[in-house]
Design brief:
single chain; alpha+beta; Complement Module, domain 1; four-stranded antiparallel beta sheet; 2 helices; about 15% helix; rod-shaped; binds 2-acetamido-2-deoxy-beta-D-glucopyranose; signal
């Protein structure tokens, strides 16, 4: 073998050993991973490149994620990944935005509307990998549609819609009684509260009280809140109240009284007295 041939052979060997210096799987810095296309390989040829990408929820703050394998050694990773920060989501006119945890990846912005406004859209928006995940909601003036009408009555004012806190008042036709709340108010949820009243026919029957006489008050028809006053005839005494009022259930309140013969009461009292004397005597006897 000639000298030149030997030289050629040895330089070939050098090239092969240098080329044979492969790199093993590279390790990145915090919060990053090899891009998907490199993940399954265990060894990398001399001169090849791979790239790191930030984990979900992290974004590149500086530097490149690309590194090169040179003679078995990877060039240093320059990339720095920091947690995604969505920053302020912006302002909502007539509303408030708060960030209970902060504005980083996974944190939520909470939006509320000032009183009298209702929220249209999402009240909670999360910070995603690329920024806030939804559009800001809007706060719109709350208004109520016309409430329902009632039988035997009406309401005022009558309009197409009503502003927040606006009051509607109900009235009953003559001789009808309003049962419920006379006024209802337009609330934030665009509904009136409480529910509308009803107009009912209230009429109490003329009381029939044996051995009593009507001495004062209403004569039939007895409407809501009419009062009547009764007295027992001579020789009778009253159990109950003398003055009655016609209540909204068309009943007299309190209950209709009774007139009881005074004679009966005396006999009853005497009997009661006798029984208690007997009991006392029996008790004394045994002691
Ligand atoms: C009055 O309204 C209330 C509540 O709606 C109802 O429960 C009650 O039965 C009504 N009263 C009469 C006498 O209709
Ligand atoms: C109306 O009067 C009746 C009988 O006195 C009573 O039981 C009822 O509770 C009263 N109803 C109202 C709404 O006051």
């Amino acid at each position: 073998m000639s000298v030149s041939a030997l030289f050629l052979l040895s330089s070939l060997c050098l090239v092969i050993t240098a080329q044979g210096k492969q790199c093993s799987k590279p390790v990145g810095r915090q919060n990053m991973q090899l891009k998907a296309e490199y993940i399954l390989k265990e060894t990398f040829e001399d001169g090849s490149t791979v790239a790191f990408a930030c984990d979900v929820g992290y974004t590149p703050a500086e530097g490149s994620g690309v590194i090169t394998c040179t003679a078995g050694i990877w060039s240093p990773v320059q990339l720095i990944c920091q947690r995604m920060n969505c920053g302020s989501i912006g302002d909502v006119p007539n509303g408030q935005v708060s960030y209970p945890q902060g504005t980083q990846f996974g944190d939520k912005a909470l939006i509320t509307c000032n009183t009298g406004y209702k929220l249209v859209g999402k009240s909670e928006i999360a910070c995603g990998n690329q920024g806030w995940l939804d559009r800001l909601p809007t706060c719109e003036v709350a208004k109520c549609l016309q409430p329902s009408g009632i039988a035997n009555g009406m309401f005022s004012p009558r309009k197409e819609d009503y502003a927040y806190r606006e009051v509607v008042e109900y009235f009953c036709n003559k001789d009808y009684t309003l049962n419920g709340s006379k006024q209802i108010t337009c609330e934030e949820n665009e509904k009136f509260k409480p529910s509308p009243p009803s107009c009912i026919w209230v009429e109490c029957k003329d009381p029939v009280i044996p051995n009593a006489e009507h001495i004062d008050g209403s004569r039939p028809p007895h409407r809501h809140k009419a009062t009547v006053i009764y007295n027992c005839k001579h020789g009778y005494r009253m159990i109950g109240q003398a003055t009655l009022t016609c209540n909204i259930s068309s009943q007299w309140y309190p209950r209709i009284p009774e007139c009881i013969s005074n004679g009966n009461v005396v006999v009853g009292g005497l009997l009661g007295g006798l029984v208690s004397i007997t009991v006392m005597l029996v008790q004394n006897y045994w002691m």
